[in-house]
Predict the structure of Cell division ATP-binding protein FtsE.
Amino acid sequence: MVRFENVGLRYGNGPEVLRDVSFHLQPGSFHFLVGPTGAGKSSLLKLLYLSERPSRGMVTLFGQALSKTPRSQLAELRRKIGVVFQDFRLLDHMTVFDNVALPLRIAGTPEKKVQEMVSDLVAWVGLEEKMHALPPTLSGGQKQLVAIARAVITSPKLIVADEPTGNIDREMSYRIMRLFIEMNKLGSTVVVATHDMYLVDRMKRPVMELHEGKLLEASWWLTPGEAQEMPDFA
Ligand SMILES: Nc1ncnc2c1ncn2[C@@H]1O[C@H](COP(=O)(O)OP(=O)(O)OP(=O)(O)O)[C@@H](O)[C@H]1O
């Protein structure tokens, strides 16, 4: 599903912020990505959602080596990846419904199907009553639920979340993490970068740890089958 081999990343002429990063994610797996501020978590995620290209080494996504993928085909790969950011990145002048519908409309989905899928998904994240609200009228947690709905509306194979529960209270953080678990149980591979070690400890999912741009040995791994059997929280 995802393979990194001796990957390095530098911005411009700066120092390498990721060094010799190698790992393999199986389809349907769930991983936390942790490490101190500046360790390179966001940078690693940018490589995963194709916003940066590695300076060296090899990244393979969905069986396709990125170095051999022409730029024109990157958009197609990106459509298989759902991304969630700490700061939501919603369009404030568009309703909850229209924000969530955006990826479908860009893909040319027939409007009747859009209406059906978006209504179902907004209800699934628990925001039925806010369907026609504008993002600035929502709480931070509610905005994140909208951002997650938008990220998963196309059933992406890979979901990447960068600090999705930063600045969000504990109860809402659990609700958000449950949505990622649900998506994982439906087959998406999920990677969540976080500082919230309490959440990591309670969820007992495999952890990848970065330190000064190096990936430390992962302590343990779950097969996708084992992952399906896991309780949501310990
Ligand atoms: N666009 C950029 N240009 C230059 N340097 C960058 C850029 N983005 C990140 N860096 C540098 O790369 C290093 C890793 O940053 P990154 O944001 O990936 O770390 P992080 O682990 O996500 O940190 P945090 O937990 O604070 O979000 C840092 O030294 C940072 O200053």
About this structure: The longest helix spans residues 170-185. The pocket of adenosine-5'-triphosphate is lined by residues 11, 14, 17, 35, 37-43 (CB under 6 Å).
